[in-house]
Amino acid sequence: MNLIQNIREPHRLLLCWQAPEGKDRTLFTVAELQKKNNEYLFRYLKNTRDFERATDLGFTIYPPFKINPELYNSGVLEAFMRRITPRTRNDFAEYLEEFRIPNNVQIDDFTLLGYTGAKLPSDGFLVVNPFDDIEIPAEMLVELAGTRYIKTLNMKLIHKDDEVVLIPEPTNGYDQDAIRCMVGSHKIGYIKKGQTTAFHRWLSDKSIVLTANIERINGNADRPIIYVFVKLREK
After folding, report:
1. Which residues pair with residue 141 across a beta bridge?
2. What is the pTM of this model?
3. CA separation for the pair 82, 84 (Å, rounded)
4. Percentage of the chain surpassing pLDDT 90?
């Protein structure tokens, strides 16, 4: 099992939303969280294409934050920490291990949100770490997007530790920034929206070596969930 050895503290996280079953299941970025001088800020990304499309599909607000005022600076971190396993629980070490975070690591709450995603099964929200300008070396566990919609995906042909190759797909009809993930000749999913900017930057930087391997496979044949462990190193 791989573990994240180099925790990098983010200064910005994205709040993404996915519509219920039966609608467009694209992950839309609707808000962002920022950490500035030990203050935590929240704002909706109004007047963006993602926000407008999400609204058309039924998105309203993320409780407890109303659409107005423009910026929240009170109760932000507390609102999102309710989405993850409390540090006081006996199984917190197992929770960290699920996301390949060492039990003895020093990690603050904002960073923990970014590395776990703070995902609940019931509301369609996900916290996404955009990995803005992180220091190298670094590691991360990423859950692939779009896996369940790949009709040619045969789960019997992919295994833990398989090498994953990341390929930009500028001709993608849904997202010209899409990055396809391949194991051999098999497409297994895509890098999440919100993280593609960072991955494009790393893939184009000749001074960085990016390696990726399947770390965990969950779900079932109809709803596979694939996690990839990514390592960034300097040449």
Report:
1. 229
2. 0.94
3. 6
4. 82
